[in-house]
Design a protein that fits this description.
The protein starts with a strand and ends with a strand. The radius of gyration is 29 Å and the shape is elongated. The longest helix is centred in the N-terminal third of the chain and has 8 residues. The protein folds into two domains: about 270 residues, no CATH class; about 60 residues, no CATH class. Helix content is about 5%, strand content about 40%. The strands form four sheets. Strands 1, 4, 5, 6, 7, 8, 14, 15 and 16 form a nine-stranded antiparallel β-sheet that branches. Strands 10-12-11 form a three-stranded mixed β-sheet, with no helix packed on it. It has four helices and 16 strands. A hairpin with a 2-residue loop joins β14 and β15. By secondary structure, the chain is mainly β.
Length: about 325
Amino acid sequence: MEIAYSGNKVSNLEVNDQINDLPASFYGTTKAPLSAAQSNALNAKVNNPMAGLFPQTASLNGTTILQYLLDVPFPEFTGVTDDYISSGSALYNSLAVSVKKEMSHGFEIQGNFTWAKILDQNVYLNPTDATPFRYQDATPNLRGNLFGTYHFARFEGMPLYARLPLGGWSLQGALRAYDGPLVPAPSGGVGSQYGTSTTYSIIGNPVQGNRTYSRSFNTCYLNTAGQPVASTATVPGCDSNSPNPAFQQNPLFTLATIGPYLNIRELVHPLLDLSLFKTFRIHESLNFELRGEFFNILNTPNFGAPGTTPNTTSWGIVTKTQVNDPRLTQLTVRLNF
């Protein structure tokens, strides 16, 4: 048995940030959203001092313009990005355990298991934030592999013409299991320029009991008025399967709070690989290996992440399009010298 710790810290990662945005004081928060009057004032049409100067940009060229477009640092541009800011970081910590045991009758078994956590700061949650968002993986990444090898008899007592094709083969199986990637947060969980795209806050438990492909997480959410959005025949929402609200739709001009991921992982299945191989010795410094390999031999499908846009037909639903490789078979011959 071997037990090991692995850690890695990366600093000064390059991150981009949209800096042509409203001041932070113009935004509301999930606990103190802007009033209707404040939001309407930002969305009001006012006389445009830049009228006619930008014929290729309709939003800036008319006789009137939305008030919030004049309140940014550079109103003559629709966007200004500060690229390659050395403000990001990534921290990785893992515990790895490996076990190898030689059994009797030509059988040996080996396994390894990794428990890992990641803490990243590589995205600005809101354009007005001073530093990148600190995201910590609250559900550790678990990955395990189990290998078993059986060495068939060499048939030393048989004639060469029988021993050569029949004896000395090895059969190896590898079972790969992991707990899947994290599910993205609704609408990416990151605020947009001007705060005019819909964001959501977590107000309950997003984890769905007895989760399935058709309900991968809790789909119940409240609209901006605080009312539950009920499921329809085609669009999931609040119903008997997900009765307790997990998300709250924020009004416009509200700072984002979730981050890029939910603490929920995709539904994945273990995969089994097999290989049958033999080494043919020509002389002491030269041999060739014949190997047949069968990846995902049970042809087990894994699908991607569920839809994460509320009020759509894919909200909380995993589309059954296979994202992993189907069963693959290959035959290899390798000369070793």
